[in-house]
Queue: 2 jobs
Job 1
Amino acid sequence: MTFELGDNQYGKAETRLVRVDRGGERHRVTDLNVTTTLAGDLTATHLTGDNAGVLPTDTQKNTVYAFARDGVGEIEAFALRLAKHFVDRNAQIHRARVKVEQYGWEPIPATGHSFSRAAGTRTASVTYDGTTAWVVSGVQDLTVMNTTGSEFHGFPRDRYTTLQETSDRILATAVTAHWRHSGSGRVDWGPSFTGARDRLLTAFAATYSLSLQQTLYSMGQHVLSGDEGLAEVRLSLPNKHHFLVDLEPFGLDNPNEVYFAADRPYGLIEGTVKRSEAPDPGLAWW
Amino acid sequence: MTFELGDNQYGKAETRLVRVDRGGERHRVTDLNVTTTLAGDLTATHLTGDNAGVLPTDTQKNTVYAFARDGVGEIEAFALRLAKHFVDRNAQIHRARVKVEQYGWEPIPATGHSFSRAAGTRTASVTYDGTTAWVVSGVQDLTVMNTTGSEFHGFPRDRYTTLQETSDRILATAVTAHWRHSGSGRVDWGPSFTGARDRLLTAFAATYSLSLQQTLYSMGQHVLSGDEGLAEVRLSLPNKHHFLVDLEPFGLDNPNEVYFAADRPYGLIEGTVKRSEAPDPGLAWW
Amino acid sequence: MTFELGDNQYGKAETRLVRVDRGGERHRVTDLNVTTTLAGDLTATHLTGDNAGVLPTDTQKNTVYAFARDGVGEIEAFALRLAKHFVDRNAQIHRARVKVEQYGWEPIPATGHSFSRAAGTRTASVTYDGTTAWVVSGVQDLTVMNTTGSEFHGFPRDRYTTLQETSDRILATAVTAHWRHSGSGRVDWGPSFTGARDRLLTAFAATYSLSLQQTLYSMGQHVLSGDEGLAEVRLSLPNKHHFLVDLEPFGLDNPNEVYFAADRPYGLIEGTVKRSEAPDPGLAWW
Amino acid sequence: MTFELGDNQYGKAETRLVRVDRGGERHRVTDLNVTTTLAGDLTATHLTGDNAGVLPTDTQKNTVYAFARDGVGEIEAFALRLAKHFVDRNAQIHRARVKVEQYGWEPIPATGHSFSRAAGTRTASVTYDGTTAWVVSGVQDLTVMNTTGSEFHGFPRDRYTTLQETSDRILATAVTAHWRHSGSGRVDWGPSFTGARDRLLTAFAATYSLSLQQTLYSMGQHVLSGDEGLAEVRLSLPNKHHFLVDLEPFGLDNPNEVYFAADRPYGLIEGTVKRSEAPDPGLAWW
């Protein structure tokens, strides 16, 4: 009976980095949560504890901070710099993945150095194998709601079905979306992100929805159609159920006005929209 | 050896209520988390399990939903309606406290019925004893940062002091603030809230700070000075530490640019600012 | 129009301290989360930013770690040492409160130095004003369930009541309990805690319950009756509702077997049980 | 420019099910969090909102509750029943994955119907494609610590390395482990789980560790070696750093006694151990 090491990776998770750019009239705040993950020839440490190939996770953290000294810029570019460094400078490391979450801050008008936290998180993930870099941008914690324009009916019924069909329901979700760029060479990461995020919002709002899947597909299609540099997009949409409260026991009607917002369970709809001609990268890319 | 029942109360916590107002060009969403708490002559249920005086928490929840049928309006007014109902309709209930959290939603421009969640939470708490109603408005989860304009020095040093004095640090906090109204009869709850929230932000930004306590006092003073209907304000301000990263080991300087945002431990500064002439309500009011 | 500073305090929250005692056959782990809070003559820093009286929260953290060098022992004793230090060594500090959470670790039998985290958290809070020290011990995150032996009926009904009476329900709660010691001089903090915790569990289990309030009172009474050094106990008991699922639509009965465990809303029952002869300490002590 | 639907799935997440078995001297509690996920011929709902193939997530929830009526048993068996039902009864569904988390409850001795929550969570995941069922068992939230017996040195140093080598550190982690069974036909799910969990604990404790990777491999190997029905195991081990506090500024030494338990960042070590002869299932199985 013998055993062997399978897939493995390691890294430093959730390095919290805040950079302040103080040039210009108004300061700029870049508030990040960075996770670095390395894979490669790491058998020795698993089998014998020989760490000759294990770049410490502490060093990975230090590298994140040191690289920020020269400026961070767009998070896709920052992740690319880091991923290439780890692979190109460490022969035993064959793949690096750098994930970045960016928290938004809005100016408080009173000064040039005051900010308040905005909702929503921008994300980037770069995977680099020494030759190719895959860049994925995204958004999470973007919670949205349509108070009408959503139906759900025509579904199959079996012994366990009790759900009523509806032609007018609240549709609410917390969007997690990741879109993969065709290449890693573009420079307009910032406008590309803003555009994709805006199209997500607009498509969510403007799609008359017969199912959350239909909304998902529409959102994905709009993300891709507005940016030729994007190959595919993956969305994960929890259906944040809002149930109409039965007020009849109190002698009251409820013309789609009073709802109970439920926590659990929730529907979870996940799907991918791809540009038809896009080649398959052959990796779990989100 | 005898025992007796001391202070006690009970209620329904975190009833999640969403109301949609569908009149007008644009729908309006009111998204609330409501907690009701009752106190009074409740000895019997504690000592013998006689529930003749225990209005069920399930009934309290139902009442919240039923009252929303007529509209919610400003959360202070909604909490007043509920608190008065519970005390006035139940002889054995001598005090009701109704707490409401309101989550903000911003319109997505594409339609009249689409929204995205905004940061920050508005709160209201009403305490009613059958005669007087105390109304407290507030805000929580309002995270703010000044990237300069904050010093900290002149503090006492003892055997355990290692902190360096600083004349330029990041000051960041997540504001929880509660302000008590002098009476319960005002009708401008909405503008009053918006004004107080704006003054909190402006005071945080505009105060050149020698300590977070000084910023706290300034914030409180500005909240009160802009609204004669407010008697006192209590603030709870975690000091969200941002530590300058030492880049010297990497041959780099760090001119106040690269920071580590720490989670724990954190400073916690709490204080009250009162209008000097304001009478003491004699209750733990926040 | 003048303003003044009201109640205020400040401190360092959530200093995470782990101490390992390596003497003896088996190591001992003390895993704590310590919050220190000071109050006193702190007007200057609020009004002018003069920090001459502000013992930095960073120094408070350092003190926690330094005091742990001599051993921690029972958390009540550790909190007493810290609270007395802060008040006795700083003339401007008139009151210190030190709160400690202790996380339990159970030995893994294989070695003398291996442990796994157990459920439940032990707590202590000491308030010291230069003369008197109030010591409160407690427990939190102690989740318990009775699968029978709980009824709820005889409650008042009004227009908004829909709840059915029940003579057999699941009763589940996550216990938060704080009990105040009559003095601060006892030395058996450890056995006192273990005894109180055991009596809480036994009373919860053994009380045939007509209301969660009745269970609460019984739990409080048992805590006090087993330890003459305890003056009062305060309990906060969320009613973690378990609703019987209606399986009738699927042609199935449900003889009290299949439940939905709800998150929100939840009942929240809070109460105090006091030794009748116990003097009132005149402070919000929990 | 054309787009197409890529990988997609949907289901009901986090259905909270509690079942009480009341036969016998002592009641038995089965406390579950069930997530069902279906994939198949779902293009229509994405493209046109035609829901003829969309078994509602509400129906999936109902099915979970209805199936519990006949008893739950071991969670692997329960997940198998559900997964097979969804695929076998719905022609358009080609793959079901059912994930179950089980929360442990320990008896309170006083009665036969009283319980307290224990630490740690047991998990099961079944993936069924109409022909084959892959069964994965596991554990999460199992937090463990060795107070000695852990070194870390011999790692590469670069410009960004500041970490000191150590020959005695605390090693602490929160184990997430998933092990795949070779087949789906075994009946000893319960003893198999208990054995694997015990071997994880023993291997963690008994491995003298030169790296967390070495501990991971040892844990994986022990899980497999004790149960011939297991093909591979995947572990995800956050390195919960405990940093020795520098007490020298206070004139104190610190002989490996006083530590700061850090939250973020943390190392994250992930790896797979496989039986060498085990065929590759060709799916992301954990």
Job 2
Amino acid sequence: MDYQAVIEEVAAHARPYAGQGQVADYIPALERVSADRFGIAVADIDGKVYGAGDWEVPFSVQSISKTFSLALVMAQGHSSHSGDDEIWRRVGREPSGTPFNSLVQLEAENGIPRNPFINAGALVVTDRLLTLTGDASTALLHFLREESGNPDLAFDQAVADSEADHGDRNAALAHFMASFGNLENPVPSVIEHYFWQCSIEMSCRDLAVAGGFLARHGLRADGSRLLEAREAKRINAVMLTCGTYDAAGEFAYRVGLPAKSGVGGGIVAVVPGRCTLCVWSPGLDARGNSVAGAAALDHFTTLTGWSVF
Amino acid sequence: MDYQAVIEEVAAHARPYAGQGQVADYIPALERVSADRFGIAVADIDGKVYGAGDWEVPFSVQSISKTFSLALVMAQGHSSHSGDDEIWRRVGREPSGTPFNSLVQLEAENGIPRNPFINAGALVVTDRLLTLTGDASTALLHFLREESGNPDLAFDQAVADSEADHGDRNAALAHFMASFGNLENPVPSVIEHYFWQCSIEMSCRDLAVAGGFLARHGLRADGSRLLEAREAKRINAVMLTCGTYDAAGEFAYRVGLPAKSGVGGGIVAVVPGRCTLCVWSPGLDARGNSVAGAAALDHFTTLTGWSVF
Amino acid sequence: MDYQAVIEEVAAHARPYAGQGQVADYIPALERVSADRFGIAVADIDGKVYGAGDWEVPFSVQSISKTFSLALVMAQGHSSHSGDDEIWRRVGREPSGTPFNSLVQLEAENGIPRNPFINAGALVVTDRLLTLTGDASTALLHFLREESGNPDLAFDQAVADSEADHGDRNAALAHFMASFGNLENPVPSVIEHYFWQCSIEMSCRDLAVAGGFLARHGLRADGSRLLEAREAKRINAVMLTCGTYDAAGEFAYRVGLPAKSGVGGGIVAVVPGRCTLCVWSPGLDARGNSVAGAAALDHFTTLTGWSVF
Amino acid sequence: MDYQAVIEEVAAHARPYAGQGQVADYIPALERVSADRFGIAVADIDGKVYGAGDWEVPFSVQSISKTFSLALVMAQGHSSHSGDDEIWRRVGREPSGTPFNSLVQLEAENGIPRNPFINAGALVVTDRLLTLTGDASTALLHFLREESGNPDLAFDQAVADSEADHGDRNAALAHFMASFGNLENPVPSVIEHYFWQCSIEMSCRDLAVAGGFLARHGLRADGSRLLEAREAKRINAVMLTCGTYDAAGEFAYRVGLPAKSGVGGGIVAVVPGRCTLCVWSPGLDARGNSVAGAAALDHFTTLTGWSVF
């Protein structure tokens, strides 16, 4: 497989879609990004990286951070007495079937979020990470620096502050779960760490490399084990069924790869046993997924035949 | 009408129900009340008061305060430029059809609570009162002292503190409405005033007298006008359709009077043009209304024929 | 009270609203009615009738029939062993809080409709009437002829047939309740009787007179008893809390009388102990209530002060 | 891969689970099946079949038929002008997030079922198949006989009749969709064909062989093309995200294969490019999936490492 040739063809196919859709505008720091950016990177399981377009330009990872927080909680669980099952008593694994920030489901299901990728579920994961590490956002940042090999990764304070200014919905979710006893730490602290996690800036390169363990069945680039094979497989399963907001079924149908998207326009996707990809273009469709990014992944699986199905 | 004879017969009928149901136990200060208390008071439109049983024992007014907050906002609206209609742009007048603290409805209706007596609606009323007065809970206390003629009315700090310890659900409601732009003041401030309002202690006597303006078509005991007749009628309409949590239809069917209940076991009811009643007994039915209190009101309308229907 | 003078002033006030709103157009037979019709009739408790405008023009009663079906089931219950309580085990008395033909509530509450005036509840009432009489629609027609004193009342076959052509939603409701065991008769039979009941044509005069027992605490015009006072009061309570679709709270707030509306543009309202009114104008507001009819009732209670509150 | 050895180990592992859970008892014909049955069959892509336990005992396919109806509609679409996209305008591809027979989602989404595997969606697929073939259930039976190579496959009339006796929920779904214009054929006809499809009896062997095209990227056993590779992939994607009622996320997490279950206790699963499996054991978990069947598939992917993730 000549990865470079493939991703250049994918980029040529997808770039016309850049500029379509709407750039997230609920916080000023996201709105400023130029809509016609497009980047793609692929990291194979041996750690070689290929890129095209704006693949080295940092962008706000937003919800993509949820995949890494979950992995870190599962990895941290190894050394705790509770194991990785603790988190699954407090958050489900089922697709949500309702908008990603819905309170309806929480009310019907006693404060247990349907999965770790809706906002409520990610707040529970952050809460758990805070308990396990004492500093959830810093722990995540260090983890991402290590996995990506990029020591310059940093929070974007303007983004974190902006999120906080528009944080009433997340505060409502957190207080609501707290009313069911499903938070271990004070609401303001959980919210704050959650926003910092979302504000991390990374490039397609950084994310494709950092997500390598998901294609390597849990192994780090250096061969050491981060997660059990079973655990890496399970994160991929949750990504495929829940990773792209309320479009997971459509995404599985079109692309057929585990993937996690963010409103910054990035999407990380995994071909288990082969490679991890990251695409980026800020224009979002009605469900919050990058238009050009989805087109790129669609074309990638068409060219390679590497859908999981 | 010999009020004293009637309420003594009502008391005799209802007292056996005292002790039935569950005393609210979500905060210690409520739980401590003896379940077999029962009191009833009637204030006629001339200001004469009749009582039986524990009618002079103070109890926690809880949600009954919502009726008076609403009246105060409507009265304050007279002197503002906005009039009493301002509040009705931010809260509806329809029965909720779902449990009183539900978030589902709020989500479906863009942060506008269905009515001012569900918790979300009462938070909006408190928020409005805070804007109009600068100190919502103190304004309400002074208003209740004046209307009841009892200068000793006070907050119960233990109750307010306990509520705050269990306040995540209300904080969730408030943040959720704030995310829709339906709060004017900071969430913690609104919540705090809301809890203080609920913590006020009053007896059946105090409440029957204080609610006299609802039977007098808006006139105070001294003949001065608090509300327009139209406004008093409208509060009664909201009480009848929304005043007893998710049992308003059942209450109208059995009793047929505008009424507002609280989880402290009190119920205020109005016979327009005739009198205001207050009954109290701490045991609550599954929907949060006093068992003996409802039995008393049922018997009262049977004896007098004074259902509005 | 000079009823004739009052209703002429009411008519003068309300007639400009005739033509506003939308005429129900889901079936051709309703759509054909001229939007600018307006009629009003009042029957006092002595049986005297006053009218203005198109008060003798027959129109399709539609959901107003639900009030009379309910009364007939309650009256029939007297002679059965079960009494009037049987029906209340199969249908609730609470406002619905959701659109009148909603399936959501039914699913959440095990096939028990919230009240007898939403379609699902009316189907249960029809089913019960079918069991009690063997022919629900004919029994209702005879009852209405007798109460109105108009032997010419008849079904409108075109309307009944049109309803049946658009009856999938009601068939869904009926089958859904049957799946919970809450129907006694076959679905097609219940549906058919339901449509025939709705298709009856009556004028404002007919309806005001026929509804006289609701103002006379259950007595017929000839002084014989149709319902216990308690039962008539209860129907009024259900009308006030549930009689005007999802606008019952608003209606209580503006008008303050028990009322039942239909998509044919009629509204029957009751002033207990005084009179029964019927207004008619085909233009409907967004919630399915006659625009000019509601304006007329609003003005009527303003003029007379006869709100129940 | 020694398939025979693997499935014997899987059978040894899973057989102790046979007898756990509840046998579907809503129709007598299903209830009669002995709970401790267990069978497993694997058909590799070359058409060789391996079996263990009760792998040749016919059972009621129930909802597994939905996968084949969908495939047949997609295949039939090739020869129609509309192509396979027609069906996707009338049914979605997203997990439902609510119980499989829910009306709530249908109401919120204008009569478009979330996916073809919930009952409402399967009724739309049956309706489409009826339009395309004139006889949906016979067309499906012939298709299954052909794909399984078993000319003796037949409907179980007792099951179809029993389903019809308990068919009010499905009739409600069908009438409800008809009220939104989302059915092309009369409700009773669609319902009847739907029940006949569910009543077909097949063994693990029959189903594993018949589902071979899903592992062969759309090719039949004889090498002729039934579906485009893209189409077969898409059915697998819908199976993985929606194939096991409200447990699809959990199933992906534990097993990681596209699968479709039925309340008869069967589950068909696909390892794309390798093989199709069928497991059967009648005891169901709370979500309607075979307890021993799920345990078997879990163990199968553990032994082989053939999860798609």
